[in-house]
Write a structure and sequence with these properties.
Length: 198
Amino acid sequence: MATKAEQRDRTRAEIVRIATRRFAADGYAGVALDDVMSEAGLTRGALYHHFGSKRGLFQAVVEQAQLGVASAVEQATADHDEVLEGFLAGCRAFLEASLAPEVRRILLVEGPAVLGWGEWREGDLESSVRLLDEGVAELAAAGVIDDRALDTVATMLSGALNEVAIANAGSPEPDRGIDDAVAMLRRFLLGLRPADAT
């Protein structure tokens, strides 16, 4: 028999699952909490107990999406022994995960608009950007890139990847956009090789 804590976690996860689908389909403004809770077979009281408000529920949905993308990046990176190839695989995984309709609308469109840039960025910093910072540091440690201005390199890559993800969302050939972006990232990073690299 499930404990109260397990039951609470399952209830919370089910609400987030339903809300994720609805926010992705209808946008934040188009989702009625009564519809979410009716589908979950729960009352509004349960929503307020777990999330406090519609915005709190949306924030939980955004956080889960960010963690899902970060998990895909970590998995892709772990599948490679060579540092540069692992880094590029992680970037590809980020772009591919961002194409999923739920992720795209929730993270790239609704998230910054509803939560505000600062709060959305804070969540991004704790997930994808943290991995990007670690990856750039690993590239420098392995001698793939120079070890100067790594924060700037990571910031530039983060901005570029987010912009490519947004552009790909409306592209008729998103896979080609990902291939082109990864090829350009490779050229960019190879251009940052230490001066004494052969």
